[in-house]
Input
Amino acid sequence: MAKVLMKGNEAMALAAIKGGCDAFFGYPITPQNEIPEYLSYHMEENDRIFVQAESEVAAINMVYGAAGAGARVLTSSSSPGIALKQEGISYIVGSELPCVIINVMRGGPGLGGIQPSQGDYNQITRGGGNGDYHMMAFAPETLQETVDVVKESFDLADYYRNPVMIAVDGLIGQMMEPVDIDKAIPKRDLPEKTWAATGESGKRGSRNKIVSLHLDPYDLEKHNLKLKEKYDKMVENEQRYEMISTDDAEIILVAYGSMARIARSAVKALREEGIKVGIIRPITIWPFPEKAFVDLPESVHTLLTLEMSLGQMLQDVKIVNQGRYELAFYGRAGGVVPETDEIIEQVRKYVGGKK
Amino acid sequence: MKRITILTGHYGSGKSEIAVNMAIQEKLDWLIDLDIINPYFRSRSVRALLEGNGIELIESTIENAAGSDLPFISPKGSRPFVKRDIHAVYDLGGTQHGAKVMMQFRDFIKHPEDIDFLVVVNIFRQETDSAEKIIKMVHELEATSQLRVTGFINNSNLMEYTDESMIEAGQRIIFEASEALKRPIVYTYIEEHVKTTKVFAGDNKVLIRHLAKQWL
Output
């Protein structure tokens, strides 16, 4: 299909339908309201299920139930709403159920504000719920990439029997860009969901049960180790990132989402002046793309992490850096989006390396 | 042009960008932002530009609460309807829900002949990609605003990918709706980067993007 002009939130909603989403459960919050609004019309048209729940907590538990019955399920919210869903997410992981969660991030903490932010990095990558758990989290940069990963996420969630999060800041949700909604995406071979509690399982002689309760500690540890095997597989196979103009770079910016867009425009301007600067752009923030940092060119002296938060991803950069390069940081918070010139000014501070 | 232009349409059709362009190009006195739908990319982000052009911006927000998504409407929005020396453009929120705000001014509109109530259409938006959908939207907009739509603006674009043929495709579809409803295409907005020598329906205007950031 040809390109159409879409708003980020609408594009994610349509991508979910295209990705085979059977049911949506959610509760409104700015700046992601166009997702439930769009789905409230279009899920029914496509013979799918749309429910506006009475709260975020109710919504994530409806997701838990529908996923347990074998459906492809979506919920969406924004930062404080995602915080409310954490208990449910932990249960869903513990019960090894697939689902897709869209988080259109806004400024925090608390109720915060409605302007764009990346302040949920720790909530997403360190888990807000209890227990040893992880979920894959995509942080796309353009609407096309966003649409593609939303569609693919349903397959990935089913493949790993684990939630997948799409984490975008409010700008990606609200901006408009041309997208090809039918662009082909990688498909996985997925086994039948023989584990689903469909009401039919008794016919096979045993009942399927959806549980996250394991009272015997040895049994629970075994369960944890089984989950860890999945996380190790994700770390091995699912890291995604883009290297932009890094081949001869002296300074490498590390940025994702809207921040990567701003970094891109700063790099373009700085390169015209002959300043050798590039970008490592994480596309997955969990697993963090540590592979991107392994073989950097000898020209590199500084990694400058850029965030619309105050040094959250910086912790991951520190871990992968292992002291090899100078580390620098610049971030804005609370819904303030930096201008390109602001980033250019930051980069200039590090030209020529440490004085 | 009429003394008052009210812009309506689906969300994402380009109303706010057109309102800013129109206010500057036509040297209007007021831009009244009545968008209670959209939280981002609002005319308030170009307040300095508007003021530099001598245009007063009446915002749909509470002072010093730019991040608020409370559906607040400035009561000053009524003034151009009664003070006939003010030349103004109104920027409504998207869809019939955004157009509903006009209801409250109904009693002040003594001179409907002063007003153009225009539907902005971009056929590359899914919700307005056929004449049938556009006609349905016009009826919905009229029902909630209690105002008669007087014409269309062709703003068919795919942002930086826009070319002449896309504007023509837009014109064909909007013209079908225009014929069926007997309301003219009043303006065609053409992005500044589009190379064309063609003359399109209505007044042809250049669109400069003021609200989208340089890196978007």
Remarks:
- Residues 164-181 of chain B form the longest helix (18 residues).
- Strands of chain B lie at 4-9, 30-34, 56-58, 88-92, 115-121, 151-154, 185-191, 203-207.
- The domain at 4-207 of chain B is CATH 3.40.50.300 (Rossmann fold).
